[in-house]
Protein backbone atom coordinates (compact mmCIF):
# COMPACT_ATOMS: atom_id res chain seq x y z
CA UNK A 1 0.00 0.00 0.00
CA UNK A 2 1.46 3.31 -1.10
CA UNK A 3 1.00 5.90 1.67
CA UNK A 4 2.66 9.29 1.52
CA UNK A 5 2.99 11.41 4.66
CA UNK A 6 3.18 15.07 3.85
CA UNK A 7 5.01 15.99 7.08
CA UNK A 8 6.71 13.23 9.07
CA UNK A 9 7.10 15.22 12.27
CA UNK A 10 5.70 12.86 14.95
CA UNK A 11 5.57 15.70 17.41
CA UNK A 12 3.26 17.66 15.12
CA UNK A 13 0.16 18.81 16.97
CA UNK A 14 -3.12 18.98 15.07
CA UNK A 15 -4.15 22.53 14.35
CA UNK A 16 -7.74 23.44 15.10
CA UNK A 17 -9.58 26.40 13.65
CA UNK A 18 -13.10 27.03 14.88
CA UNK A 19 -15.71 28.23 12.38
CA UNK A 20 -19.35 28.21 13.49
CA UNK A 21 -18.57 25.42 15.94
CA UNK A 22 -16.94 23.20 13.27
CA UNK A 23 -13.47 21.81 13.88
CA UNK A 24 -11.01 21.98 10.97
CA UNK A 25 -8.06 19.57 11.45
CA UNK A 26 -4.66 19.68 9.71
CA UNK A 27 -4.63 16.85 7.14
CA UNK A 28 -1.12 15.40 7.04
CA UNK A 29 -1.78 12.10 5.21
CA UNK A 30 -1.93 12.68 1.45
CA UNK A 31 -3.12 10.17 -1.17
CA UNK A 32 -0.55 9.43 -3.88
CA UNK A 33 -3.30 8.65 -6.42
CA UNK A 34 -5.20 11.95 -6.12
CA UNK A 35 -4.94 15.27 -4.31
CA UNK A 36 -7.00 14.25 -1.28
CA UNK A 37 -5.49 14.36 2.20
CA UNK A 38 -6.63 13.07 5.59
CA UNK A 39 -6.06 13.77 9.28
CA UNK A 40 -5.80 10.07 10.20
CA UNK A 41 -3.80 7.23 8.70
CA UNK A 42 -6.82 4.88 8.95
CA UNK A 43 -8.88 7.32 6.85
CA UNK A 44 -6.22 7.31 4.15
CA UNK A 45 -6.05 3.50 4.19
CA UNK A 46 -9.81 3.31 3.72
CA UNK A 47 -9.66 5.90 0.91
CA UNK A 48 -6.90 3.99 -0.95
CA UNK A 49 -9.37 1.11 -1.43
CA UNK A 50 -11.54 3.41 -3.57
CA UNK A 51 -8.63 3.49 -6.06
CA UNK A 52 -7.66 -0.19 -5.83
CA UNK A 53 -11.25 -1.44 -5.77
CA UNK A 54 -10.42 -3.71 -2.84
CA UNK A 55 -13.53 -4.89 -0.95
CA UNK A 56 -12.45 -7.63 1.48
CA UNK A 57 -15.64 -7.66 3.59
CA UNK A 58 -18.43 -9.82 2.09
CA UNK A 59 -22.05 -10.17 3.18
CA UNK A 60 -22.98 -13.79 4.08
CA UNK A 61 -26.61 -13.33 2.96
CA UNK A 62 -26.03 -11.71 -0.45
CA UNK A 63 -23.09 -11.15 -2.79
CA UNK A 64 -22.35 -7.57 -1.75
CA UNK A 65 -18.82 -6.68 -0.69
CA UNK A 66 -17.47 -3.67 1.18
CA UNK A 67 -14.17 -1.88 1.64
CA UNK A 68 -14.75 -1.35 5.39
CA UNK A 69 -16.03 -3.65 8.13
CA UNK A 70 -18.26 -0.89 9.54
CA UNK A 71 -20.09 -0.59 6.21
CA UNK A 72 -20.68 -4.37 6.20
CA UNK A 73 -22.08 -4.18 9.75
CA UNK A 74 -24.52 -1.42 8.69
CA UNK A 75 -25.47 -3.39 5.56
CA UNK A 76 -26.25 -6.56 7.57
CA UNK A 77 -28.93 -4.60 9.40
CA UNK A 78 -30.84 -4.18 6.11
CA UNK A 79 -31.30 -7.99 6.20
CA UNK A 80 -32.13 -8.26 9.92
CA UNK A 81 -34.20 -5.05 10.10
CA UNK A 82 -32.24 -4.01 13.20
CA UNK A 83 -32.19 -0.26 13.90
CA UNK A 84 -30.29 0.22 17.15
CA UNK A 85 -29.90 3.99 16.96
CA UNK A 86 -33.16 5.64 18.08
CA UNK A 87 -33.97 9.34 18.15
CA UNK A 88 -34.88 10.53 21.66
CA UNK A 89 -37.16 13.27 20.25
CA UNK A 90 -39.30 11.19 17.88
CA UNK A 91 -39.92 7.54 17.02
CA UNK A 92 -37.41 7.29 14.19
CA UNK A 93 -34.62 4.72 14.40
CA UNK A 94 -31.56 4.15 12.22
CA UNK A 95 -29.14 1.39 11.28
CA UNK A 96 -26.13 3.72 11.45
CA UNK A 97 -25.12 6.16 14.20
CA UNK A 98 -24.09 8.74 11.58
CA UNK A 99 -27.62 8.77 10.19
CA UNK A 100 -28.98 9.45 13.70
CA UNK A 101 -26.55 12.38 14.19
CA UNK A 102 -27.65 13.93 10.88
CA UNK A 103 -31.32 13.35 11.78
CA UNK A 104 -30.98 15.15 15.14
CA UNK A 105 -30.02 18.34 13.30
CA UNK A 106 -33.54 18.36 11.79
CA UNK A 107 -34.97 18.86 15.29
CA UNK A 108 -32.44 21.51 16.32
CA UNK A 109 -32.55 23.31 12.95
CA UNK A 110 -28.77 23.60 13.16
CA UNK A 111 -26.84 23.94 9.91
CA UNK A 112 -23.22 24.43 11.00
CA UNK A 113 -21.54 24.01 7.61
CA UNK A 114 -21.56 27.14 5.42
CA UNK A 115 -20.53 27.58 1.78
CA UNK A 116 -17.91 30.32 1.49
CA UNK A 117 -19.09 31.33 -2.00
CA UNK A 118 -22.88 31.59 -1.73
CA UNK A 119 -23.39 31.44 2.07
CA UNK A 120 -25.72 28.43 1.92
CA UNK A 121 -25.84 26.42 5.14
CA UNK A 122 -25.81 22.64 5.42
CA UNK A 123 -26.42 20.12 8.20
CA UNK A 124 -23.69 17.74 7.04
CA UNK A 125 -20.08 18.39 5.99
CA UNK A 126 -20.53 15.89 3.16
CA UNK A 127 -23.47 17.90 1.83
CA UNK A 128 -21.28 21.03 1.85
CA UNK A 129 -18.46 19.17 0.10
CA UNK A 130 -20.82 17.98 -2.64
CA UNK A 131 -22.31 21.47 -2.95
CA UNK A 132 -18.86 23.05 -3.45
CA UNK A 133 -18.47 21.02 -6.63
CA UNK A 134 -21.45 22.95 -8.08
CA UNK A 135 -19.24 26.06 -7.94
CA UNK A 136 -16.00 24.39 -9.04
CA UNK A 137 -17.52 22.11 -11.71
CA UNK A 138 -15.32 19.29 -10.39
CA UNK A 139 -16.41 15.76 -11.31
CA UNK A 140 -13.81 13.48 -9.73
CA UNK A 141 -15.70 10.19 -10.09
CA UNK A 142 -15.19 8.71 -13.60
CA UNK A 143 -17.05 5.71 -14.99
CA UNK A 144 -14.60 3.04 -16.25
CA UNK A 145 -17.08 1.75 -18.86
CA UNK A 146 -18.07 5.06 -20.49
CA UNK A 147 -16.90 8.67 -20.49
CA UNK A 148 -19.37 9.95 -17.90
CA UNK A 149 -18.07 11.65 -14.76
CA UNK A 150 -19.87 12.60 -11.56
CA UNK A 151 -19.59 15.05 -8.70
CA UNK A 152 -20.50 12.44 -6.08
CA UNK A 153 -19.31 8.87 -5.52
CA UNK A 154 -22.88 7.75 -4.83
CA UNK A 155 -23.94 9.03 -8.27
CA UNK A 156 -21.17 6.95 -9.88
CA UNK A 157 -22.22 3.81 -7.97
CA UNK A 158 -25.84 4.31 -9.08
CA UNK A 159 -24.68 4.94 -12.66
CA UNK A 160 -22.58 1.73 -12.70
CA UNK A 161 -25.73 -0.28 -12.08
CA UNK A 162 -26.95 0.83 -15.54
CA UNK A 163 -24.02 -1.15 -16.99
CA UNK A 164 -24.30 -4.11 -14.58
CA UNK A 165 -28.14 -4.05 -14.42
CA UNK A 166 -27.78 -4.79 -10.71
CA UNK A 167 -30.88 -4.24 -8.56
CA UNK A 168 -29.88 -5.25 -5.05
CA UNK A 169 -32.78 -3.66 -3.14
CA UNK A 170 -35.92 -5.84 -2.95
CA UNK A 171 -39.37 -4.96 -1.62
CA UNK A 172 -40.63 -7.39 1.06
CA UNK A 173 -44.27 -6.61 0.14
CA UNK A 174 -44.33 -7.32 -3.61
CA UNK A 175 -40.86 -8.52 -4.64
CA UNK A 176 -40.01 -5.54 -6.87
CA UNK A 177 -36.29 -4.80 -7.05
CA UNK A 178 -34.49 -1.47 -7.35
CA UNK A 179 -31.01 -0.24 -8.14
CA UNK A 180 -31.08 2.33 -5.32
CA UNK A 181 -32.06 2.01 -1.68
CA UNK A 182 -33.79 5.41 -1.84
CA UNK A 183 -36.03 4.08 -4.64
CA UNK A 184 -36.97 1.10 -2.46
CA UNK A 185 -37.79 3.34 0.53
CA UNK A 186 -40.09 5.50 -1.62
CA UNK A 187 -41.71 2.40 -3.13
CA UNK A 188 -42.38 0.84 0.29
CA UNK A 189 -44.30 3.99 1.26
CA UNK A 190 -46.80 3.21 -1.55
CA UNK A 191 -47.63 0.07 0.46
CA UNK A 192 -47.58 1.62 3.93
CA UNK A 193 -49.00 5.05 3.03
CA UNK A 194 -46.31 6.66 5.19
CA UNK A 195 -45.83 10.40 4.66
CA UNK A 196 -43.20 11.44 7.19
CA UNK A 197 -42.53 14.95 5.87
CA UNK A 198 -45.09 17.43 7.18
CA UNK A 199 -45.49 21.10 6.22
CA UNK A 200 -45.21 23.51 9.18
CA UNK A 201 -47.46 26.05 7.38
CA UNK A 202 -50.42 23.74 6.67
CA UNK A 203 -51.46 20.15 7.42
CA UNK A 204 -50.11 18.63 4.22
CA UNK A 205 -47.62 15.77 4.47
CA UNK A 206 -45.42 14.12 1.87
CA UNK A 207 -43.63 10.82 1.26
CA UNK A 208 -40.46 12.57 -0.01
CA UNK A 209 -38.46 15.39 1.55
CA UNK A 210 -37.97 17.05 -1.85
CA UNK A 211 -41.76 17.21 -2.23
CA UNK A 212 -41.98 19.03 1.10
CA UNK A 213 -39.20 21.46 0.11
CA UNK A 214 -40.97 22.33 -3.15
CA UNK A 215 -44.34 22.64 -1.40
CA UNK A 216 -42.90 24.94 1.30
CA UNK A 217 -41.78 27.34 -1.44
CA UNK A 218 -45.45 27.84 -2.40
CA UNK A 219 -45.86 29.40 1.07
CA UNK A 220 -42.58 31.33 1.22
CA UNK A 221 -42.40 32.35 -2.45
CA UNK A 222 -38.72 31.35 -2.48
CA UNK A 223 -37.19 30.95 -5.96
CA UNK A 224 -33.52 30.04 -5.42
CA UNK A 225 -32.73 29.01 -9.00
CA UNK A 226 -32.00 32.06 -11.19
CA UNK A 227 -31.28 32.26 -14.91
CA UNK A 228 -27.96 34.05 -15.53
CA UNK A 229 -29.12 35.20 -18.98
CA UNK A 230 -32.42 36.93 -18.26
CA UNK A 231 -32.71 37.00 -14.47
CA UNK A 232 -35.80 34.80 -14.19
CA UNK A 233 -35.98 32.76 -11.01
CA UNK A 234 -37.54 29.36 -10.35
CA UNK A 235 -38.50 27.36 -7.29
CA UNK A 236 -37.41 24.01 -8.81
CA UNK A 237 -33.98 23.35 -10.33
CA UNK A 238 -35.22 21.31 -13.31
CA UNK A 239 -37.56 24.18 -14.25
CA UNK A 240 -34.43 26.33 -14.61
CA UNK A 241 -32.78 23.59 -16.70
CA UNK A 242 -35.79 23.54 -19.04
CA UNK A 243 -35.83 27.34 -19.14
CA UNK A 244 -32.18 27.48 -20.26
CA UNK A 245 -33.21 25.55 -23.38
CA UNK A 246 -35.45 28.47 -24.44
CA UNK A 247 -32.22 30.48 -24.75
CA UNK A 248 -29.97 27.78 -26.23
CA UNK A 249 -32.56 26.08 -28.47
CA UNK A 250 -31.26 22.72 -27.22
CA UNK A 251 -33.53 19.73 -27.83
CA UNK A 252 -31.84 16.73 -26.23
CA UNK A 253 -34.81 14.34 -26.37
CA UNK A 254 -34.80 12.63 -29.80
CA UNK A 255 -37.60 10.43 -31.10
CA UNK A 256 -36.23 7.04 -32.18
CA UNK A 257 -38.99 6.59 -34.77
CA UNK A 258 -38.71 9.91 -36.63
CA UNK A 259 -36.38 12.91 -36.80
CA UNK A 260 -38.25 15.06 -34.27
CA UNK A 261 -36.49 16.29 -31.13
CA UNK A 262 -37.84 17.99 -28.02
CA UNK A 263 -36.60 20.21 -25.21
CA UNK A 264 -38.62 18.35 -22.51
CA UNK A 265 -38.80 14.61 -21.88
CA UNK A 266 -42.55 14.93 -21.24
CA UNK A 267 -43.00 16.31 -24.78
CA UNK A 268 -41.18 13.28 -26.19
CA UNK A 269 -43.37 10.86 -24.19
CA UNK A 270 -46.54 12.50 -25.55
CA UNK A 271 -45.10 12.51 -29.08
CA UNK A 272 -44.24 8.77 -28.92
CA UNK A 273 -47.91 8.01 -28.32
CA UNK A 274 -48.62 9.33 -31.81
CA UNK A 275 -46.55 6.46 -33.19
CA UNK A 276 -48.17 3.84 -30.93
CA UNK A 277 -51.71 5.24 -31.30
CA UNK A 278 -52.03 5.58 -27.51
CA UNK A 279 -52.67 9.32 -27.36
CA UNK A 280 -54.80 9.54 -24.21
CA UNK A 281 -53.85 6.62 -21.96
CA UNK A 282 -55.26 8.02 -18.69
CA UNK A 283 -59.06 7.46 -18.58
CA UNK A 284 -61.36 8.85 -15.90
CA UNK A 285 -63.16 6.12 -13.91
CA UNK A 286 -66.17 8.37 -13.30
CA UNK A 287 -66.87 9.52 -16.87
CA UNK A 288 -65.75 8.66 -20.41
CA UNK A 289 -63.00 11.30 -20.63
CA UNK A 290 -59.35 10.38 -21.16
CA UNK A 291 -56.19 12.46 -20.87
CA UNK A 292 -52.65 12.49 -22.30
CA UNK A 293 -51.03 13.07 -18.88
CA UNK A 294 -51.68 11.61 -15.42
CA UNK A 295 -51.53 15.12 -13.93
CA UNK A 296 -54.38 16.21 -16.24
CA UNK A 297 -56.46 13.27 -15.00
CA UNK A 298 -55.70 14.18 -11.37
CA UNK A 299 -56.98 17.75 -11.93
CA UNK A 300 -60.04 16.46 -13.81
CA UNK A 301 -61.05 14.10 -10.97
CA UNK A 302 -61.34 17.14 -8.72
CA UNK A 303 -64.18 18.38 -10.95
CA UNK A 304 -66.10 15.29 -9.78
CA UNK A 305 -65.10 15.50 -6.11
CA UNK A 306 -65.26 19.31 -5.89
CA UNK A 307 -61.95 19.22 -4.04
CA UNK A 308 -59.96 22.48 -4.04
CA UNK A 309 -56.91 21.86 -1.86
CA UNK A 310 -54.91 24.95 -2.89
CA UNK A 311 -55.99 27.85 -0.66
CA UNK A 312 -54.96 31.48 -1.19
CA UNK A 313 -53.24 32.88 1.92
CA UNK A 314 -54.49 36.42 1.13
CA UNK A 315 -58.21 35.74 0.54
CA UNK A 316 -60.75 32.91 0.80
CA UNK A 317 -60.35 31.65 -2.77
CA UNK A 318 -59.23 28.06 -3.31
CA UNK A 319 -58.29 26.07 -6.42
CA UNK A 320 -58.06 22.50 -7.63
CA UNK A 321 -54.75 23.18 -9.40
CA UNK A 322 -51.59 24.64 -7.84
CA UNK A 323 -50.83 26.52 -11.07
CA UNK A 324 -54.19 28.29 -10.87
CA UNK A 325 -53.31 29.38 -7.32
CA UNK A 326 -49.91 30.71 -8.45
CA UNK A 327 -51.57 32.76 -11.21
CA UNK A 328 -54.18 34.03 -8.75
CA UNK A 329 -51.53 35.07 -6.20
CA UNK A 330 -50.18 37.53 -8.77
CA UNK A 331 -53.45 39.49 -8.49
CA UNK A 332 -52.40 40.31 -4.92
CA UNK A 333 -48.89 41.36 -5.98
CA UNK A 334 -47.57 43.63 -8.72
CA UNK A 335 -46.30 40.57 -10.61
CA UNK A 336 -49.35 40.00 -12.84
CA UNK A 337 -47.50 39.19 -16.08
CA UNK A 338 -43.94 38.20 -15.12
CA UNK A 339 -43.10 36.30 -18.32
CA UNK A 340 -41.74 38.87 -20.80
CA UNK A 341 -40.98 38.18 -24.45
CA UNK A 342 -37.40 39.28 -25.26
CA UNK A 343 -38.30 39.89 -28.94
CA UNK A 344 -41.26 42.22 -28.37
CA UNK A 345 -42.91 44.01 -25.46
CA UNK A 346 -45.61 41.42 -24.76
CA UNK A 347 -45.87 39.90 -21.28
CA UNK A 348 -47.72 36.82 -20.07
CA UNK A 349 -49.07 35.46 -16.79
CA UNK A 350 -47.86 31.89 -17.45
CA UNK A 351 -44.60 30.53 -18.85
CA UNK A 352 -46.48 28.13 -21.17
CA UNK A 353 -48.25 31.12 -22.78
CA UNK A 354 -44.85 32.74 -23.40
CA UNK A 355 -43.50 29.53 -24.96
CA UNK A 356 -46.45 29.44 -27.36
CA UNK A 357 -46.01 33.13 -28.17
CA UNK A 358 -42.28 32.74 -28.95
CA UNK A 359 -43.25 30.35 -31.75
CA UNK A 360 -44.96 33.27 -33.52
CA UNK A 361 -41.49 34.83 -33.83
CA UNK A 362 -39.58 31.64 -34.69
CA UNK A 363 -42.40 30.34 -36.97
CA UNK A 364 -41.79 26.97 -35.32
CA UNK A 365 -44.59 24.43 -35.74
CA UNK A 366 -43.25 21.26 -34.15
CA UNK A 367 -46.52 19.28 -34.10
CA UNK A 368 -47.20 17.70 -37.48
CA UNK A 369 -50.29 15.75 -38.57
CA UNK A 370 -49.57 12.17 -39.68
CA UNK A 371 -52.56 12.23 -42.09
CA UNK A 372 -51.86 15.49 -43.93
CA UNK A 373 -49.14 18.16 -44.17
CA UNK A 374 -50.62 20.52 -41.56
CA UNK A 375 -48.38 21.65 -38.72
CA UNK A 376 -49.27 23.27 -35.40
CA UNK A 377 -47.56 25.33 -32.71
CA UNK A 378 -49.27 23.46 -29.85
CA UNK A 379 -49.90 19.76 -29.27
CA UNK A 380 -53.47 20.52 -28.11
CA UNK A 381 -54.25 22.04 -31.54
CA UNK A 382 -52.85 18.93 -33.24
CA UNK A 383 -54.97 16.64 -31.04
CA UNK A 384 -58.15 18.54 -32.00
CA UNK A 385 -57.12 18.42 -35.66
CA UNK A 386 -56.50 14.66 -35.50
CA UNK A 387 -59.98 14.13 -34.11
CA UNK A 388 -61.40 15.92 -37.14
CA UNK A 389 -59.47 13.47 -39.34
CA UNK A 390 -60.45 10.33 -37.40
CA UNK A 391 -63.99 11.42 -36.48
CA UNK A 392 -63.25 10.93 -32.80
CA UNK A 393 -65.59 12.97 -30.59
CA UNK A 394 -64.73 12.19 -26.96
CA UNK A 395 -66.77 15.03 -25.42
CA UNK A 396 -70.33 13.67 -25.14
CA UNK A 397 -73.37 15.64 -24.00
CA UNK A 398 -75.11 13.85 -21.11
CA UNK A 399 -78.52 15.31 -21.98
CA UNK A 400 -78.63 14.41 -25.66
CA UNK A 401 -76.66 12.31 -28.16
CA UNK A 402 -74.46 15.12 -29.48
CA UNK A 403 -70.67 14.74 -29.22
CA UNK A 404 -67.78 17.11 -29.91
CA UNK A 405 -64.10 16.99 -30.77
CA UNK A 406 -63.12 19.45 -28.03
CA UNK A 407 -64.35 20.58 -24.63
CA UNK A 408 -65.01 24.11 -25.89
CA UNK A 409 -67.64 22.86 -28.33
CA UNK A 410 -69.37 20.89 -25.59
CA UNK A 411 -69.44 23.90 -23.23
CA UNK A 412 -71.12 26.06 -25.91
CA UNK A 413 -73.62 23.30 -26.66
CA UNK A 414 -74.54 22.87 -22.97
CA UNK A 415 -75.81 26.49 -22.94
CA UNK A 416 -78.78 25.28 -25.01
CA UNK A 417 -79.79 22.92 -22.21
CA UNK A 418 -79.02 25.24 -19.29
CA UNK A 419 -80.58 28.45 -20.73
CA UNK A 420 -83.18 26.94 -23.05
CA UNK A 421 -81.98 29.04 -25.97
CA UNK A 422 -78.96 29.88 -28.08
CA UNK A 423 -77.24 32.67 -26.20
CA UNK A 424 -75.78 34.88 -28.97
CA UNK A 425 -78.55 36.96 -30.60
CA UNK A 426 -78.26 38.78 -33.92
CA UNK A 427 -78.89 42.55 -33.71
CA UNK A 428 -80.73 42.62 -37.08
CA UNK A 429 -83.12 39.73 -36.51
CA UNK A 430 -84.58 37.45 -33.88
CA UNK A 431 -82.15 34.67 -34.79
CA UNK A 432 -79.85 33.17 -32.19
CA UNK A 433 -76.43 31.75 -32.97
CA UNK A 434 -74.10 29.65 -30.86
CA UNK A 435 -70.96 30.93 -32.60
CA UNK A 436 -69.12 33.67 -30.74
CA UNK A 437 -67.79 36.78 -32.48
CA UNK A 438 -64.16 35.69 -32.18
CA UNK A 439 -64.99 32.36 -33.87
CA UNK A 440 -66.74 33.96 -36.83
CA UNK A 441 -63.66 35.82 -38.03
CA UNK A 442 -61.00 33.30 -39.01
CA UNK A 443 -58.21 33.01 -41.58
CA UNK A 444 -58.95 36.43 -43.13
CA UNK A 445 -62.60 35.55 -43.84
CA UNK A 446 -65.99 36.10 -42.28
CA UNK A 447 -68.12 32.94 -42.39
CA UNK A 448 -71.86 33.40 -41.95
CA UNK A 449 -74.70 30.92 -41.40
CA UNK A 450 -75.48 31.37 -45.11
CA UNK A 451 -71.86 30.48 -46.03
CA UNK A 452 -71.09 34.02 -47.24
CA UNK A 453 -67.31 34.53 -47.28
CA UNK A 454 -65.75 37.99 -47.46
CA UNK A 455 -62.00 38.01 -48.17
CA UNK A 456 -60.07 40.68 -46.26
CA UNK A 457 -56.79 41.60 -47.96
CA UNK A 458 -55.83 44.36 -45.51
CA UNK A 459 -53.15 42.95 -43.13
CA UNK A 460 -54.43 44.86 -40.07
CA UNK A 461 -58.11 44.53 -40.91
CA UNK A 462 -60.48 44.70 -37.92
CA UNK A 463 -64.15 43.77 -37.90
CA UNK A 464 -66.74 45.16 -35.49
CA UNK A 465 -69.44 42.96 -33.99
CA UNK A 466 -72.25 44.91 -35.67
CA UNK A 467 -70.54 44.43 -39.07
CA UNK A 468 -70.63 40.67 -38.59
CA UNK A 469 -74.41 40.82 -38.10
CA UNK A 470 -74.73 42.76 -41.38
CA UNK A 471 -72.59 40.26 -43.32
CA UNK A 472 -74.70 37.34 -42.14
CA UNK A 473 -77.81 38.98 -43.63
CA UNK A 474 -76.37 40.72 -46.69
CA UNK A 475 -73.08 39.01 -47.49
CA UNK A 476 -71.62 42.54 -47.87
CA UNK A 477 -69.05 44.16 -45.62
CA UNK A 478 -68.73 47.96 -45.59
CA UNK A 479 -66.27 50.19 -43.77
CA UNK A 480 -67.23 53.20 -41.59
CA UNK A 481 -67.34 55.43 -44.71
CA UNK A 482 -69.71 53.13 -46.56
CA UNK A 483 -67.07 51.68 -48.91
CA UNK A 484 -67.72 48.03 -49.86
CA UNK A 485 -65.02 45.35 -49.41
From TrEMBL:
Stored PROSITE patterns: ZINC_FINGER_C2H2_1, ZINC_FINGER_C2H2_2
Pfam families named among the record's database cross-references: zf-C2H2 (PF00096), zf-H2C2_2 (PF13465)
Main localization, broad class: nucleus
Residue stretches making up the C2H2-type domain: 29-56, 57-84, 85-112, 113-140, 141-168, 169-196, 197-224, 225-252, 253-280, 282-309, 310-337, 339-366, 367-394, 395-422
An annotated GO cellular component: nucleus
GO biological process, one term: segmentation
Keyword Transferase: no
GO molecular function: DNA-binding transcription factor activity, RNA polymerase II-specific; RNA polymerase II transcription regulatory region sequence-specific DNA binding; zinc ion binding
Keyword annotations: Developmental protein, DNA-binding, Gap protein, Metal-binding, Nucleus, Repeat, Transcription, Transcription regulation, Zinc, Zinc-finger
Subcellular location: Nucleus
Biological role stated in the UniProt entry: Krueppel is a gap class segmentation protein.
Record-stated family: Belongs to the krueppel C2H2-type zinc-finger protein family.
Name under which the protein is recorded: Protein krueppel
Species whose genome carries this gene: Meganyctiphanes norvegica
Origin organism lineage: Eukaryota, Metazoa, Ecdysozoa, Arthropoda, Crustacea
Amino acid sequence: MDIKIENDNTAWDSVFAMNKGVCSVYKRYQCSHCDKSFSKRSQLQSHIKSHTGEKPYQCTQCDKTFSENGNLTSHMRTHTGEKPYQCSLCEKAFTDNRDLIRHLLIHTGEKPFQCSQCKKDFRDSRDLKRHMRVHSGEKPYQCIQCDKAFKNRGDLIRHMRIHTEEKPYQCNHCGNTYSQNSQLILHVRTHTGEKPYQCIHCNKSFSQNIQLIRHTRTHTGEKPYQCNQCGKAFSISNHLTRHYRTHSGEKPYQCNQCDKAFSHDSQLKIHLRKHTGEQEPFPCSQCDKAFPKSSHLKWHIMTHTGQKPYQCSHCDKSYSDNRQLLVHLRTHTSEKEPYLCIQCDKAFSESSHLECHIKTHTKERPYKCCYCDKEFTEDAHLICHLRAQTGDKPYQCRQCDKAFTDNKGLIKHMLIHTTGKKPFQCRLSDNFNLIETKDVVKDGQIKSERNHKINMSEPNFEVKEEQIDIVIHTGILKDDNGATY
